[in-house]
């Protein structure tokens, strides 16, 4: 299904679908569960816009490339250009919305690439590797240090985190990212996943939510 950014009320957001800038190991408990060290500086990677699909209506996963792990994450939609160490105010002004998202990962492939010291694109950038629910407007949250993210699969809560546990909080994270590469309207930030990642299977029924803002469902095809 083709993807266009939209708000929860169905309003289409007329930004192009840009790149998806991601941070790895941004929750200490998640770094631990995969036996990864907690990074001393933010571990960034980028998914291309071509991998974004909507949660609504369900989504397909590859079935011939080993395990596909879900990572529920708070997504931030960028609505204005940001570059070279923007101020806190500039970052806040550039945020258009928040949504629950899935950073899908070919975990077996990633482990193989990691062990060889190779880049992760093959494991992180396949078509459908970024699943986005609709966005809520940025004024929804008074405190960006207190945004929940919850994923329920087949009726069982698998991930239940909060931005308060992020090693790099949302605004400093985006300041750092914009210092590494310019951000543009339509880009999306994935802010890392809390503990509880695991494999997805065809037929799984998912509920993704930023608690308090509504929940979104989709099934795995
Ligand atoms: Zn992730």
Structure characterization notes:
The protein has 221 residues and is of the alpha+beta class. The chain has a single domain, classed as Fumarylacetoacetate hydrolase, domain 2. Helices cover 17% and strands 30% of the residues. Strands 1, 2, 3, 5, 6, 8, 9 and 12 form an eight-stranded mixed β-sheet that branches. A four-stranded antiparallel β-sheet has the order 11-10-14-15, with no helix packed on it. The relative contact order is 0.27. The model has no long low-confidence stretch (mean pLDDT 95). The chain binds zinc ion (ZN). Residues 22, 71, 73, 103, 190, 192-193 line the site of zinc ion.
Short characterization:
This protein is of the alpha+beta class.
Number of strands: 15
Structural class: alpha+beta
- The low-pLDDT segments are none
Q: What is the distance, rounded to the nearest whole angstrom, between the alpha carbons of the first and last residues?
A: 12 Å
Q: Within the CATH hierarchy, at the fold level, what is the topology? A: Fumarylacetoacetate hydrolase, domain 2
Shape: globular
> Can you identify the CATH superfamily?
Fumarylacetoacetase-like, C-terminal domain
SSE order, as H and E? EHEEEEHEEHHEEEEHEEEE
Q: What is the name of the CATH architecture?
A: Alpha-Beta Complex
Radius of gyration: 16 Å
Instruction: Report the major sheet.
Output: 8 strands, mixed
CATH class: Alpha Beta
Bound molecules: zinc ion
Strand content: 25-35%
The mean pLDDT is 95
Number of domains: 1
Tally of separate helices: 5
Helix content: 10-25%
């Amino acid at each position: 299904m083709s993807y266009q950014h939209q708000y929860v009320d169905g309003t289409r957001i007329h930004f192009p679908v840009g790149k998806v800038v991601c941070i790895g190991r941004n929750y200490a408990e998640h770094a631990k569960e995969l036996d990864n060290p907690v990074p001393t500086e933010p571990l960034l990677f980028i998914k291309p816009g071509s991998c974004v699909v909507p949660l609504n209506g369900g989504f397909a996963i590859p079935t011939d490339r080993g395990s596909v792990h879900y990572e529920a994450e708070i997504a931030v939609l960028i609505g204005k250009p940001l570059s070279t160490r923007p101020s806190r105010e500039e970052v806040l002004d550039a945020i258009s919305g928040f949504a629950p998202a899935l950073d899908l990962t070919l975990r077996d492939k990633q482990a193989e690439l990691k062990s060889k010291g190779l880049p992760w694109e093959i494991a992180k950038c396949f078509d459908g590797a970024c699943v986005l629910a609709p966005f809520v407007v940025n004024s929804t949250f008074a405190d960006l240090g207190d945004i929940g993210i919850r994923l329920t699969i087949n009726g069982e809560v698998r991930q239940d985190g909060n931005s308060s546990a992020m090693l790099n909080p949302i605004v400093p994270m985006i300041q750092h990212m914009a210092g590494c590469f310019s951000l543009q309207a339509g880009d999306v930030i994935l802010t890392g996943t809390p503990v509880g990642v695991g494999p997805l299977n065809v037929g799984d029924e998912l509920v993704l939510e930023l608690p308090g803002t509504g929940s979104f469902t989709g099934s795995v095809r």
